[in-house]
Design a protein that fits this description.
heterodimer; A: 262 residues; mainly alpha; 87% helix; 0% strand; globular; B: 249 residues; Rossmann fold; 2 domains; 8 helices; 24% strand
Chain lengths: 262, 249
């Protein structure tokens, strides 16, 4: 009878302890990554390579998702606004929705899909093929050589990607509104510019930086802690994307609350 | 040069090393044999500091490895050939070979590092045309040679070889064994090799250590290996399924 009560409790306790231990490990990994970003030696070539893969090569996917999202948002707001004769708010709501929320979140999730998965798979493969051990024997700290350049590249480039995504998203709304909803092009742009405030743009860029760090950090963490073989690489990749996506959405909520509810 | 005293290592409840004692003299080539899962790779990683032993002391050149302050300088004394070569996929062959010479305390100008890399590639029988290829473009045997060139690129005092002939055909295995022997003698380096391949043992070793159940079961000169009366060693070198070493069937 006692076992019936204690077993589920023990299982719950074990799960909670395991979850807390994981949080602790990720936090220590993040601290170590930032320490390595700030202390020499710095691997410039690795950083430039990370800038290319995390930032530049992500531009097409960010641009495409942003333009379609901005266009769809304009259509939704127009249709919804027409229910209470508020169709004219399309430029303002598109700008607000894209810059404050959809732009950064969409870019963050694209980063999780494109960058986190690729970092995790690459580092996990390096781990199972002993390339990480080889780095250590060649007097090179894997945290410094693999993690620090990628996380720093995420911190620097994702806000820029968010700025690009926001602009293209607003352009998508402008394009749909002027081509099929009958809005005047100049008035639409004027309404957009007049309505947006500096805090909207700052919050967007700060979110981008946070999401860039989360996306790259999760890729590195799960890659470095991958299990053995192809299955280990697969699990590391899957877990990294899930963790990055969930953390990005959670961080988005916390940052929105910090920026706009005080 | 390398000495291990009463080294223990367990992963959870699984004891891998149960009191390893081993001494490898300077300039000597010691080959460690033993069945799969007996802890050979763990022992090597403990010496390099990749894994921390639970108990015991490991000294390199009389210095306790746990007391080594400058890790970079400590590791610069070693070269290692990994089982699967462990070449960096993202770098061309010459940058793999010259990896240590392009960064850290042994950093040289790029042109000089490339020159050394090409010289080391030549030493392992590869031409300069290979230098700009990527590891994925090489055969298994060529990858091992590049791994060997990388291991000797910075003229280390100690070289570790982890299963150097695994996955190679017998002729290529023979070539790699000869190369290892020549290079170790030529450089005067201390070598520690892990292998299951008895042809490798005979070609490379001065001394042989057999690891069984986490302890050194037999240690002695390679010339005395065949005449030793240890039943475990006899079973291993003859590859017999019958004997004291438990086998799964």
């Amino acid at each position: 009878m006692t076992a019936l009560v204690t077993r589920p409790l023990a299982a719950l306790g074990a799960t909670v302890l395991a979850a807390l231990a994981s949080v602790g490990r990720v936090a220590l990994f993040a601290l170590s990554a930032f320490r390595h970003i700030l202390t020499p030696p710095f691997y410039g070539r690795e950083f430039l390579h990370a800038l290319m893969t995390v930032g530049y090569l992500s531009l097409p996917v960010v641009g495409l998702t942003a333009i379609f999202t901005g266009g769809a948002l304009a259509l939704q707001i127009y249709a919804g606004g027409s229910r209470f004769s508020a169709e004219q708010v399309v430029p303002q709501i598109v700008a607000l929705g894209v810059v404050r929320e959809l732009g950064p979140v969409m870019v963050g999730l694209m980063m999780a899909a494109r960058v986190t998965s690729s970092i995790a798979a690459e580092i996990a493969t390096m781990k199972v093929t002993e390339q990480i051990d080889a780095l250590v024997t060649l007097s090179t700290d894997p945290m410094k050589y693999l993690t620090a350049p990628r996380v720093f590249a995420g911190l620097v480039t994702v806000p820029l990607l968010v700025a690009v995504g926001d602009t293209i998203g607003v352009f998508g709304g402008w394009f749909v509104s002027t081509q099929s909803l009958g809005f005047n092009a100049a008035t639409y742009l004027k309404n957009t510019v007049d309505f947006l405030e500096a805090s909207d743009i700052i919050s967007s860029l700060v979110k981008g930086a946070a999401f860039g760090v989360i996306a790259t950090l999760m890729g590195c963490y799960f890659g470095m802690n991958s299990g053995r073989g192809a299955q280990g690489v697969g699990r590391a990749t899957k877990s990294s994307v899930v963790a990055a996506a969930v953390l990005i959405l959670a961080a988005n909520f916390l940052l929105t609350q910090a920026f706009f509810t005080t | 040069m390398i000495s291990l005293e009463n080294v223990h290592k367990a992963f959870g409840s699984k004891e891998i090393l149960r009191g390893v004692d081993l001494h490898v003299a300077r300039g000597e080539s010691c080959v460690i044999i033993g069945g799969s899962g007996t802890g050979k790779s763990v022992m090597l990683k403990c010496i390099l500091g990749l894994i921390k032993p639970d108990q015991g002391t490991i000294k390199v050149g009389g210095e306790d490895i746990t007391a080594t302050g400058d890790r970079d300088a400590f590791l610069a004394r070693f070269g290692m050939l990994f089982q699967g070569a462990a070449l960096f996929d993202s770098l061309p062959v010459w940058q793999n070979v010259a990896f240590r010479l392009l960064r850290g305390s042994l950093k040289r100008p790029k042109a000089e590092a490339r020159e050394i890399a090409i010289e080391k590639l030549r030493r392992v029988g590869l031409g300069p045309d290979v230098a700009d290829l990527f590891p994925a473009e090489l055969s298994g045997g060529m990858q091992k040679r590049v791994g060997l060139a990388r291991a000797i690129a910075a003229d280390p005092e100690i070289i570790f070889f982890d299963e150097p002939t695994t996955g190679l055909d017998p002729i290529m295995a023979g070539v790699i064994n000869e190369l290892i022997r020549e290079i170790v003698v030529e450089m005067g380096a201390t070598a520690v090799t892990i292998t299951h391949d008895m042809t490798s043992v005979r070609a490379i070793a001065d001394k042989v250590a057999m690891l069984h159940r986490g302890k050194i079961r037999w240690f002695g000169p390679v010339a005395e290996m065949d005449s030793a009366d240890d039943p475990y060693l006899k079973q291993f070198i003859t590859g017999s399924a019958e004997g004291p070493i438990e086998t799964l069937r």
